[in-house]
Write a structure and sequence with these properties.
Length: about 425
């Protein structure tokens, strides 16, 4: 069994879906994980935001636009105006949630998941029906029945051991040799829908690969493979042929958008190679990620956006701040603030963290613990692995740089958004 994962960009229009069919070719024994089409998840986040503001009209307008977008793809795929009953039903369910939910702030994440999960349910339904219409026998799986996550919304971790028998059982119901399932979604022990964090479809695919003992996993993307930097930000980016699991985790953690950070562990545990391949050309080798690889010869630059810098200082200078690290970190953890870099002095603790819905609450809680807290928004974190003087000169100097931390191999720069 091989696992193939198709991201939103690769199935953003009818051509993309046809291309997916071409990539499958005459292969059998495939487990295909698909994300929501194009920017659907962003649109569903806006549906949720409408609900949150009690602006049901705005939410409904977003749903109407999504309906139109998917209907156009379906019509083009089937070559004539086509109504797929299962798609109608999914949109009906989504509309019911948007119209009837009585939103309470403490349930924000629950409703977020209930809504954004539709992107993948819709995309996989369209793709499964299209494949069947083109003679590719396949079985559509509801991954909410297959993947059991922890009881946590919006960023849940999959319980692989508990999911394994479920997934196998769902697959055993069918004699198909090609399966199509949603990335990004699962369900919690209480039965509600959960999501695995933005871009979490890679992680879903890795979990499936782990459970099925797949021979490989391939992620089909709109780039030729893993590059040493984002070419939109750093124009002279080059492709890397091989990476090892450990470096990949480091890169993903630093914000490289190669792969979701949780993807590697399930693969590494079973020693399953991961191919990052261009969906435009099946013959190109892409990048392979596995346990051992040739050393990477070029510096790698990773920019993590949407950061903020918190500076925490104890009001009472008489004690050493370090003694209270535990208090600060457990408070941040309980507000689900993701800290990406820590820098400390005797009286200051500076933290570069992901911008979050919960930051203001966290700051209030820290102040209650008698800390002074200062927040600077609009920051970004640049990580350079294998840096050199010229790169530091270019990226780590000037008034926009707040923090520069470096080890022998890696420099990390917290700076104002450029
Ligand atoms: N559709 C989800 C997102 O856009 C998950 C994914 O693409 O992997 O975040
Ligand atoms: Mg996506």
């Amino acid at each position: 069994m091989k696992v193939y994962k198709f991201g939103g960009a690769s199935v953003r229009n009818a051509d993309g879906v046809r291309n997916l069919l071409k990539i499958i070719g005459d292969e059998q024994d495939l487990f295909i994980i698909v994300s929501a089409m194009g920017k659907t998840t962003n649109a569903l986040e806006r549906v949720f935001a409408g609900l949150q503001r009690e602006d049901r009209r705005a939410a409904q307008e977003e749903i109407d636009a999504l309906r139109g977008y998917h209907a156009a793809i379906i019509d083009e795929l089937f070559g004539r105006p086509t109504r797929l009953e299962r798609i109608e039903r999914l949109f009906g369910e989504l509309e019911t949630i948007a119209a009837e939910t009585r939103y309470r702030p403490e349930e924000a994440e629950l409703w977020y998941d209930a809504i954004v999960a539709f992107g993948e349910l819709i995309s996989t339904t369209i793709i499964s029906e299209y494949l069947a219409a083109r003679g590719v026998e396949n079985c559509w799986l509801d991954m909410r029945r297959c993947l059991l996550t922890e009881q946590r919304h919006k960023d849940a971790t999959v319980d692989i051991a508990a999911s394994a028998p479920r997934l196998r059982e769902e697959m055993a119901r069918s004699s198909a040799r090609i399966f199509v399932g949603q990335g990004f979604i699962g369900s919690a022990p209480d039965g509600t829908t959960t999501t695995l964090g933005r871009e979490g479809s890679d992680y879903s695919a890795a979990v499936a690969a782990n459970i099925l003992g797949a021979e490989s996993m391939s992620v089909w993307k709109d780039v030729d493979g893993v590059l040493n930097a984002d070419p939109k930000i750093f124009p002279d980016a080059v492709q890397i042929a091989e990476l090892n699991y450990l470096d990949t985790i480091e890169l993903a953690y630093s914000g490289a958008q190669i792969i979701h950070p949780k993807t590697i562990k399930p693969l590494q545990n079973k020693n399953i190679p991961l191919y990052v391949r261009p969906f435009g050309d099946k013959r190109k080798p892409g990048t392979v990620i596995r346990s051992v690889s040739a050393p990477v010869e070029v510096p790698i630059l990773i920019l993590k956006k949407d950061q903020m810098l918190l500076t925490v200082r104890s009001r009472d200078f008489s004690f050493v701040l370090e003694e209270r690290f535990a208090t600060i970190f457990s408070l941040l953890e309980s507000h689900r603030i993701k800290v990406n870099l820590v820098h400390n002095s005797a009286v200051n603790l500076s933290l570069c963290a992901d911008d979050s819905w919960h930051i203001d609450e966290a700051i209030r809680a820290l102040r209650r613990e008698r800390f002074d807290v200062m927040k600077v928004d609009n920051m970004e974190l640049l990580t350079i692995r294998g840096y050199n003087d010229a790169l530091l000169e270019r990226y780590a100097r000037g008034p926009s740089v707040f923090i520069l931390q470096s080890t022998q191999s890696t420099a990390r720069i917290v700076r104002k958004r450029q």
